[in-house]
Amino acid sequence: MAVPPIGARVRVPVGTRTLTGCVVQHDALIEDGTDAKDIVEAVDREALLPPSIVDLCRWVAEYYVAGIGDALAVAMPPGARGRANAFKKQRVVRATAHGLEMVRLKPDPTTTEVHPTVTEKQRAALEILAAAPEGIASTELRDRGVTAGVLTGLAKRGLVSIHSERDERDPFERAAMADVTPGVSRELTEEQRLAADELFALADAREFRVALLHGVTGSGKTEIYLRLADRICRAGRQVLLMVPEIALTPSIAALFRGTFGNRVAIQHSALSDGERHDQWHRIRRGEIDVVVGTRSAVFAPLDRLGLVIVDEEHDGSYKQEETPRYHGRDVAILRASRAGALVVLGSATPSMESYQNASAGKYVRITLEKRVLDRPLASVRLVDMRTEYADEGPDVVISRDLAAAIGDRLARREQVLVLLNRRGYSTAVFCRQCGDTFECPNCSVSLTVHRVRGGLPRPFDKLRVAPSNVEGRASEASRAGWRARCHYCNYSVIVPKVCRKCAAPYLEHAGFGTERIEEQLNERFPDARIGRVDRDSVRRKGALTQLLTKFASGELDILVGTQMIAKGHDFPGITLVGVISADVGLGLADFRASERTFQLLTQVAGRAGRGELAGEAIVQTLYPEHYSIQLACRQDYPAFFEREVVYRRGMRYPPFLALINGVVRGRTFDEAMQHAREIVRRLEPATAAGTFTILGPAPAPLGRLRGEHRVQFFLKGSRRADMRHALMEVVAGMPEIRRRLTIDVDPLSVL
Ligand code: ADP
Ligand code: ZN
Question: What are phi and psi of 70, to 5 degrees?
């Protein structure tokens, strides 16, 4: 048998089984300690993954202390993926092109009897379905732990209907095509032209460079990307454009599609595995000049890469919060350095890391200080909610100023964006008589309360009165239409009308989320057409695009939402942005809290006044003096950076030092703590060289998650390699504990 090349899939024996793997090296030990395997059979004669991508995966695995198999799994096209390691079994993917299987609760169950035989798993599935009257795709149910077997069981009992729906062809694509405004013909402003010229020069040098394009919101960065991409393609090289989430920035994809036609591959989550598979192979065959995609597109098999653009480079969604915990932007930079390509990081609010690198001369900084066509930035007004509470009582959600301003805009037929970065109806429910609260049995958080539209369907009622049911009064509750859900593990229960413990009818909501804002706006402005964008409202495939399209076409007057509405949108009709609680993120014990707050407020304020009419933002806060709020109001990034950098340097936080976070999970707190202590004890000798220190172990802020206790520690130092090597060496000696340890290099959020 000829030696299969690096990047080819092969069948290899593992224990008593034969599994599919990917060749990463010849005649050597694989770095994660696994022995090289004898090959039983070659799956591919030629490399499926280009060697450069295999190389990139090896780097990712090493840098993020993950298995090479985990990294390869991200890079493989759908259908060819292995899972946990290089030799794990190939996942079988049904490539059903556009068919979508929808599962719904039956409004009229054929069997009207109570079902004492319904299993726990089936019951859980019914709960999920009860919250989604329009039905849920079977693929999504599977992601949420509902197996095909459970669904079949429910269908047999006549409780759910399963049917195939021919999905409209790629809803995103349609929206994207709707308003193609090919930009290349438009004349650049003077500032844009200067920036473009500087980038052209860098591109023409055909070597690795990183440029930070720091341009205020609405300064026309997209136009520059487009021209730069065009230039690279004309020179016979390829472009990778990374965006945080394509559905949230459809205009950028539309613009690229309009310019590059079918030479552009757009990779987004609304594509089926089949479509993604096809695209991947088109890229692999070299038929594509431009790939537009989210973080995993950084592994796209382009072999003439000349330019990587990372739009909104500060965005947290570039970081993958599961193994391998890579940062798309950072992997992009590494990839470009190997390909000799130019990287452009674009943002109005660059990450501290990138701006610091630019200040230190590692990156070229290019600045756009003005909006196009001399449009002014939105003027921002602060509303001190302490005064508001004093005057109007503690239940105020929408201040007098904001309400008046919204009324104004509605009267003038202008559009309004209202941000509250917290979803759900309320943040907690409690009994006023006995104090009972709804906490997650698996996680150390209280459950978020959601409204269930139109109450719950009937078969659900019947199930809840089964004697095995702990919440016996649930049939009563189901009409109340409240459901409390854990945002971490998805556990949920119906909120009854009376207290579960003392039966008092005094349940009260505390705190508020986007659903409550929507409700209040509906009450105050009954004629306004209001849409809501958060993870709950856009769960259904295509729902987000639909909402955004409606707003863009003027069919909605107000869009309420979480940070999803703050990102990169360009809706020229918005003249007012309201921020309900600007300080939602400030209370978190996280050194990035100020940075995130500044970014979010600056970005959302940047959505106003992008058309001909000037914009205004009204920001409600309890901390009007906080620097991140003050400076976001002035939209003064350099001042924010100067202020924040002092704190980071003083506290020895990134970008001045690197962090690695380790979380040890255990069945009990003591077990987790004991294991964490053992790891730390073994790491200690390596700190003697003085390049890093260890913090902890200590209970993680989220002390319990999905039923497991969590203890964390940090490595903090100037040389990541030292920290990584020490960690790898230690965990290699304790394989039992390794499985309970999550390592996060350059963590973005630590919970
Ligand atoms: P940014 O990404 O920097 O926030 P965009 O690229 O979305 O800004 O551009 C903001 C708006 O200005 C868009 O509607 C875009 O079409 C428009 N625009 C960009 N460049 C020009 C130009 N040179 N002349 C006129 N309009 C422009
Ligand atoms: Zn939970």
Answer: -65, -40
Q: 442 vs 103, which has greater pLDDT?
A: 442
Q: Which ligand is nearest to the CA of 438?
A: 2
Work out the pLDDT band at 325, boundaries 50, 70, 90. very high
What is the pLDDT, as a whole number, of residue 104? Answer: 63
Q: Roughly what angle, to the nearest 10 degrees, separates helices 148-156 and 120-130?
A: 80
What's the mean pLDDT when you consider all of the chain? Answer: 84
Greater confidence (47 vs 166) lies with 47
Which of 367, 372, 602 for a ligand 1 pocket mutation test, highest count of atoms within 8 Å of Cβ? Answer: 372
Q: Round to whole Å and give the CA distance between 106 and 103.
A: 9
Residue 403 banded pLDDT, cuts 50, 70, 90:
very high
Q: Which among 176, 635, 178, 616 is positioned nearest to 417, based on CA atoms?
A: 616
Two structure tokens written together for 163: 């049917």
d(CA 88, CA 80): 11
DSSP-derived 3-state class of residue 64 = coil
What DSSP designation does 439 have? B
Distance 123 CA to ligand 1 centre (A): 51
Q: How do residues 163-181 score in pLDDT, each as one tens digit?
A: 654 333 343 454 444 444 4
- Cα of 707 to ligand 2 centre, how many Å? 8
H-assigned helices in 393-489: 400-411, 458-464, 474-478
DSSP 104: E
User: What global pTM score does this model have?
Assistant: 0.83
Cβ of 250 below 6 Å from ligand 1: no
Q: Which residue has the higher pLDDT, 5 or 81?
A: 5
Protein residue closest via CA to atom 15 of ligand 1: 220
Distance CA(216)–CA(609), nearest Å, equals 13
Q: What is the pLDDT of residue 121?
A: 82
Q: How far apart are CA 45 and CA 328, in angstroms?
A: 30
Q: How far apart are CA 264 and CA 259, in angstroms?
A: 9
Q: Which residue has the higher pLDDT, 259 or 186?
A: 259
**Can you read off the two tokens belonging to residue 726?**
């020490």
Residue whose tokens read 């695995």:
61
CB crowding 596-635: b at 16 or more within 10 Å, else e = bbbbbbbbbbbbbbbbebebbbbbbbbbbebbbbbbbbeb
Torsion sign across C-alpha atoms 185, 191, 192, 196: positive
Nearest residue CA, atom 17 of ligand 1?
220
Least confident of 101-110, 112-121, 250-259, 397-406: 101-110
How far separated are the first and last CA of the chain, in Å rounded? 50
Q: Over the stretch 482-502, which tens digit does the pLDDT of each residue have?
A: 899 999 999 999 888 888 888
Nearest atom (ligand 1) to Cα of 221? 3
Q: Whose CA is nearest to atom 16 of ligand 1?
A: 220
Ligand nearest to the CA of 493: 2
Category of 466 on φ-ψ map: left (φ > 0), alpha (ψ -120 to 50) or beta: beta
Q: Is the dihedral of CA 341, 204, 225, 236 positive or negative?
A: negative
* Whole-number Å distance between alpha carbons of 550 and 531: 9
How many CA atoms lie within 13 Å of 718's alpha carbon, on the beta-carbon side?
4
Inform me whether the pLDDT recorded for 669 exceeds 70: yes
Ligand 1 pocket member 371 (CB < 6 A): no
- Which of 213, 216, 223 gets mutated to test ligand 1 (max ligand atoms within 8 A of its CB)? 223
Write out the two tokens for 599.
């970014």
Phi, psi of 666 (to 5 degrees): -150, 160
CA distance 291 to 265: 5
Nearest bound ligand to CA 440?
Answer: 2
| Residue 95: predicted pLDDT | 22
Which has the higher per-residue pLDDT, 326 or 737? 326
3-state secondary structure 154-168: HHHCCCEEEEEEECC
pLDDT in tens, 510-540: 889 999 999 999 999 999 999 999 988 888 8
